[in-house]
Design a protein that fits this description.
The protein has 362 residues and is of the alpha/beta class. The chain is built from 14 helices and 13 strands. The strands form 2 sheets. A 7-stranded parallel beta sheet has the order 3-2-1-4-5-6-7, with helices on both faces. A 6-stranded parallel beta sheet has the order 10-9-8-11-12-13, sandwiched between helices.
């Protein structure tokens, strides 16, 4: 292989959890290969990618998967998702030709996918080695939602074949089990660490320092609870996304802290209020932040995420009715009296970077 490897990353645009898995690994890998070429293929906004991934990289704005069709941050449109998979696979050959031409032009040394199976399949046809990395795979997510679809096996066959074709499928903790993938390799959790800027945040928001500060982040899909109807809790202050436009004295937009990245906010707040998702849960646990989360019980990956958080971090689950009515006082109290668990070490970052290192040296 030439002295200057070229890593090509195919990144799902289904929420920001996939970026949360890949970015810390790429940043760690970059420390070992500062001059190597890096190309990212994703439909996530380029500005978001550049905010999380250090150093220069090329960007290909192209979708190789869509995950599931979402109604909002919590609910999947199952019928629309199944229809979208049927349409995607009906055009499989044309999509494969497109992805092959993109990869042929890029001529990478290695393709890392989180987790577009089309990119893995195209790379395999071009004899480019591939590595998959994710806490879930779309074949198992589809089976979780559509177990009775008559064409399920046919839809899953090319997905499973593409995933099995990777040198390894790295499964960072916490992950759903993947019994049909013989190439799975389990690694530790992946998360980036933020800086504790609480004193500065207190000063800028006019806080006294003894409040419970709750950061509200429901992931990359728009969903705003009816905050106007929520009661006020003494001693609790909330940080809300700027586009929620909340006019309440106990709620401040994080736009006022525009130089604090999301990781710094997670590290600096007492509680992250979120939905079950890989990035949210590992970033909270690894930054030592408690989690109040809304149930998402139909999401096939959820049980493993929840079990891990409750075992290694501090978390309490609320239901949809509590979310709608703001009936959070008891759950919040339960969360705050839990003895704080030590921050989890994100050991999967180094482990995944070592896989990249090894495969690029071949």
């Amino acid at each position: 292989m030439s002295m200057m490897p070229h890593l090509y990353v195919a990144l799902s645009g289904h929420g920001f959890g996939h970026l949360a898995q890949v970015a810390p690994v790429l940043n760690q890998w970059r420390r070992r290969w500062p001059t190597a070429r890096l190309t990212l293929q994703s439909v996530l906004p380029e500005a978001v990618l550049r905010e999380r991934i250090a150093g220069a990289f090329g960007w290909v704005n192209g979708a190789a998967d869509f995950g599931m069709v979402m109604v909002d941050a919590l609910d999947v449109d199952i019928a629309a998702s199944l229809a979208a998979y049927r349409a995607f696979h009906a055009e499989w050959d044309a999509r494969l030709i497109w992805q092959e031409s993109v990869l042929r032009e890029a001529a990478p040394s290695l393709v890392l996918a989180d987790i577009p199976y089309l990119s893995l399949a195209a790379a395999a046809r071009l004899d480019i080695p591939t590595l998959a990395l994710c806490s879930l795979n779309w074949a198992d997510i589809l089976a979780g939602y559509c177990p009775d679809a008559p064409d399920l096996a046919g839809l899953r066959a090319p997905m499973l074949a593409a995933y099995r074709g990777a040198v390894a499928f790295l499964r960072p903790a916490p992950s759903m089990p993947m019994p049909e993938l013989p190439n799975v390799r389990s690694i530790g959790p992946i998360a980036a660490l933020g800086r504790d800027r609480r004193m500065e945040i207190n000063r800028r928001l006019g806080l006294g320092g003894n409040e419970t500060l709750v950061l509200m982040g429901l992931g990359g899909v728009a969903m705003r609870p009816p905050l106007e109807a929520w009661p006020e809790w003494p001693g609790v202050r909330w940080l809300t996304p700027p586009d929620w436009n909340v006019a309440r004295p106990d709620m401040a937009s994080w736009a006022a802290l525009d130089d604090c990245g999301m990781l710094d906010l997670i590290r600096s707040c007492d509680v992250l209020f979120t939905k079950p998702g890989y990035g949210a849960f590992t970033e909270a646990a690894c930054n030592g932040t408690r989690v109040l989360y809304v149930e998402r019980d139909d999401w096939p990956e959820e049980p493993w995420l929840s079990d891990w958080l409750l075992k290694y971090g501090n978390g309490v689950k609320i239901n949809r009715r509590q979310l709608a009515r703001g009936e959070l006082a008891e759950s919040l109290r339960e969360l705050l009296v839990q003895p704080a668990k030590p921050p989890v070490a994100p050991t999967g970052v180094d482990e995944a970077a070592e896989w990249l290192d090894r495969l690029l040296k071949l």
